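If you are new to this repository, start here. Below is one unmodified record pulled from the training split, so you can see the exact layout before writing a loader.
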Amino acid sequence: MSLLVALLLLLPLSQTPDGSAARERLYEEATAAVIRAAVDVVSPSIVTIETVGGAQPVRRGARGAVSERFKIADGPSTGIILSEDGLIVTSSFNFVREPTVITVRLADDRRLVATLLARDHIRRLALLRVEAGDLHAATWAPRDEIVLGQYALACGHGLGGSQPFVSLGIVSALGRRNGLAIQTDAKTSPINYGGALVDIDGRVLGLIVPMAGSGGGALAGVDWYDSGIGFAIPRDRIDEVLDRLRRGEDIEPGKIGIVLGPQESGLLDDILDELLPQSRGARITAVGDPSPAKSAGLEPEDLIVALDARPISDLEALLRELSDRAAGERITLTVKRRWRRFERTITLAKSSDIGPVKAAMDTPLPQTEEADPAEKDDSGEKQELPPTTQPDPN
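And here is the target side for that same chain:
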């Protein structure tokens, strides 16, 4: 039985008109006591992360390097002690400025220099190590005990101080982002990215991270902060990549090496869509050279209709399927070329391993989700881009 339930059972019953108000007041006091107790349990396992150096992040835009609209403020961030021997897990968001020095302040006020071992750019995780052997590792809730609607507390040290900032909410969805994340309506923001989403017993439900859409850049999801849509990565999803992070392997999004465009639709296409299965898909408009797509013989105007036997209805569906696939993973694509259908198994690559894209003759290069077709100037108006710009391949 949780502490909250136990306290509520002790609340006095009253039939008097004033009893309702008294009971409500006692309920609020009991809830506050439970929150304080949960925070007291988890606080020794939550650390403050401080960084020195680095610069505001930029992203690759159609005109080259583009400053991110969201500016990273100076100030502390948060992490969770993963093991007694010095492993600390946090969000990769906290290191987008590429700091030169990282320190960790423990709940007992010890300050230790930390080494950034590796980052997972899909789950938005980062793993740190400090030289210590007596840390207070967090207790995590088993995945099968995390249920929809249960209370959840978002805890973070982004405001400084000896106690974490706490926001109360519930677990509002499970298995989000292709099963990677828990969703909560507790307020999440840079104040608690890398911090703990905990239950009322002080067990960690997940590590709070920014996430959005089909992936995006280093700051994707940050503009949803305090919106009531927040995400946390449960322990089993962290364990899936923990050994790789411990070895110093960065995990990067996997790319096919193609640029996608919407499938052109006409009367014949509509008829085929009614008569034939998987006649819709994601249309390739350009292929990188070199790239996994090039090696597999994919060409502009090919239509990807399935990924690992799961139907792909359009461009957005393919981007969603690829959003949690890492470089080095193997996938099988079902491709339609004119009237022929075939399969290709490819190994996804890092963006840095993909060469320039080449489109079919006289085919304009569309933009994908990862590169806007028009950048906004300071006035907020969209400016037309020169026709020679190219989007990032997927």
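Two things worth knowing about this chain: The CA atoms of residues 144 and 257 lie 38 Å apart. The chain has seven helices and 21 strands.
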